[in-house]
Protein: DUF3159 domain-containing protein
Organism: Leifsonia poae
Amino acid sequence: MTDRSPEDPGHEDDAARDAVPSAIGESLARAAQKSGLGQLADGENSTGAALLGALGGFRGLAETILPGLVFLILFTFTQNVPLSIGCSVLVAIIFTAVRLIGKTPVTQAIAGLLGVGISAILALITGRGEDNFILGIWTNAAYGAALLISILVGWPLIGLAAGYLMGDGLAWRSRKNTYRVMQALTFLWFLLFAARLVVQVPLYLAHTDAATSALALTKLLMGVPLYAPLLLITWFVVRGQFAGTGTKKPAEG
């Protein structure tokens, strides 16, 4: 089989076909570089400290967990929707203010504050505590759908992100083993979001105080405790599959 020249119409067809996946992959890689997988990729060893850093450190974990924990505790004991939501939002505001005062990166805190704020508004409008979680449910559904669709069309999102993050572009799709592994990894991430929906949607639809407390608890338990180990597994697999490929330089030891 001969290589096509840049002027070959077939080459142009391939470039056009790959244009959208390339754009998606580059966008995902930029996002990943600022988040968990990118943080791990910057280090030579995936240690516990590297994983903690990928999750935002102790402060990042607190910003992720504490607003939901405050809501869980207050709502469980008081069933007071405005009080529980108000205190949860206040915690998020305090974290954001501390970052602003300390002139530290505020992206994660602001994102968390926006999520908490929008959820709080929805719950306050309806007066139902379970609506504090509807945004998260829809977000999980959107992520899960995107991952599943990417698998079905043969462009697994984890592969697209990893390929550009590791400097391999779309070349990994031509390696059957790597392609299958990226499909499998993407499916694992789909299962994470699907599992959250399977557990949380029935609790949301129950519309009882007990179910709302259980929903708050499951959101905490199915958050970082599931995300962190899957992130680490993903990085170990990606590092093994892309070793020696692309242009990414290993960190100096």
